[in-house]
Design goal:
It holds the Pfam family DPBB_1. With 117 residues, the chain is α/β, with parallel strands linked by helices. It contains 2 helices and 6 strands; from the N terminus they run H-E-E-E-E-E-H-E.
Length: 117
């Protein structure tokens, strides 16, 4: 019988790679800002509608995401600093600035794919 000895460092590295595995999801996106600007986000930082930030229900604060608008192919990068959205079918709420960069601010919602970077 052959036994392989695995070091604690190897186990820790394997667990770390599992916890930082890439995340991807597609669904609806909306934006928010007016009425929230200057107030505390769920992360504890002050919400700035002009920053490239977003709200997600479960991703850790500080997570960086690439957001791709499925209609136009435009891509942006945002940082998760808040919780939401709380409307069915939506996977992310973007700041006013992020929605403007993607070009859907006037429509209010769009379809996106998000992936952790």
């Amino acid at each position: 019988m052959i036994r392989k000895v695995v070091s604690a460092a190897a186990i820790a590295a394997a667990l770390l790679s599992l916890s930082t595995a890439a995340y991807a999801q597609c669904g609806g996106a909306s934006w928010y800002g007016p009425g929230f600007n200057g107030k505390k986000a769920a992360s504890g930082e002050t919400f700035n509608e002009n920053a490239m930030t977003a709200a997600h229900r479960s991703l850790p604060f500080g997570t960086k995401l690439r957001v791709t608008d499925q209609r136009t192919g435009r891509q942006i990068q945002v940082t998760i600093n808040d919780r939401g959205p709380y409307i069915g079918g939506r996977i992310i709420d973007l700041s006013k600035a992020a929605a403007g960069q993607l070009g859907f601010r006037n429509r209010g919602t769009t379809s996106v794919c998000i992936e952790q970077i």
